[in-house]
Amino acid sequence: MFTSLYSGFLRRCFRAAGLSSQSIDLDDKTTLHYWGPTEISKTQKPSLVLIHGFGPMAIWQWRQQVQFFSTHFNVYVPDLIFFGQSTTKSSERSENFQAVCVVKLMEKLEVKKFDVVGTSYGGFVAYHLATMLGEERVEKVVIASSGVNMRKSDNVALLERAEMDKIEDLMLPSTPQHLRKLMALSVSSMRFYIPDFFLKDFLNKLYSENRKEKMELLHGLSLGRDDTSIITPLQQEVLIIWGENDQIFPVHKAHELKEY
User: Fold this and answer.
1) Regarding the domain with residue range 2-39+46-259, which homologous superfamily does it belong to in the CATH classification?
2) 20 to 30 Å CA-CA from 79: which of 22, 26, 152, 216?
């Protein structure tokens, strides 16, 4: 009940920021849903793409940023594949494929240049996007709490911190206990107790849809697959933002990423 009510509030916030809910066929296999300006509401402002992390759909992760940035940018907020209403018949499941889909979206919308912000899993996508298009198309990049430089050993350490055996139990929680563990690792402080009935509603509404495909996305990650980092420096100006108490991607990964 609360989840549905809050989703309605989030949609109103996005609409109040001048964005509308839209879907577009990228090809004969893939449809991407996004929030963005209509042709009528577009202005001469620069363009900004916000790419969400692994969790609920985009509106749950970008409300405050959309309300602020929409006065300065034409803001585009895609739901990555298998989040929200974005879907594909393709068997591709890598974060590189997600980046290709965002590239196709911007080409369909005839947006020639833009800045990109990616948080967590969205940072992986933003990194590949910036690598693909170079500084001619992607002008500035923000990586927020996203271990694009992670290694296999970092995943092992994360599971040890979470006291879990499988990464999907943490990143795709199916019980209130698993969701509490994820929140404890990713939120710096919980100021109040959240009852089970609320968490169950949240899980049913936001984590149960496309669960199988989202598990495939987790297993399809190319970054962090072994203990050799495969990233290369980006050409663009890059801003790194990190939570100092982040237990999903500890802050020492930010300092290492800066060196790259």
Assistant:
1) Alpha/Beta hydrolase fold, catalytic domain (3.40.50.1820)
2) 152
